[in-house]
Design brief:
The structure is a single chain. By secondary structure, the protein is α+β, with helices and mostly antiparallel strands. The protein has one domain: RNA-binding S4 domain (Structural Genomics Hypothetical 15.5 Kd Protein In mrcA-pckA Intergenic Region, Chain A, Roll), CATH 3.10.290.10. 29% of the residues lie in helices and 25% in strands. The protein has a five-stranded antiparallel β-sheet. The mean pLDDT is 89.
């Protein structure tokens, strides 16, 4: 199953188009490597999603065959970590890298 579809079906990302865009931008990583939206997900993969103001890491437990409810998502993905990102800190880091 494609990673963009998997993220949508398991409710990690609410819309497939958003998952597709985030992957295209290089902000979805599987086992530490940036992947494209067409990447074929496998059980045991560790997925890190870096979006606007957060970073979420999950482990694939099962691959669903159809859309699942939010209460069932724990059967398909295990949340490893979730942290918010201060957008202003990111901007400051990028700006300081550009200066030097």
């Amino acid at each position: 199953m494609r990673i963009d579809k998997f993220l949508k079906l398991t409710n990690v990302i609410k819309r497939r188009t958003v998952a597709n865009e985030v992957a295209t931008d290089g902000s979805i990583f599987v086992n530490g490597k940036s992947v494209k939206p067409s990447y074929s997900i496998k059980v045991g993969d560790v997925i890190t999603v870096k979006m606007w103001n957060y970073e979420k890491t999950v482990r694939v437990l099962q691959i669903p065959s159809k859309q699942i409810g939010k209460s069932d998502s724990d059967n398909y993905v295990e949340l490893i970590s979730y942290k918010t990102i201060d957008v202003m800190d990111e901007i400051r880091e990028e700006t300081s890298e550009d200066i030097f």
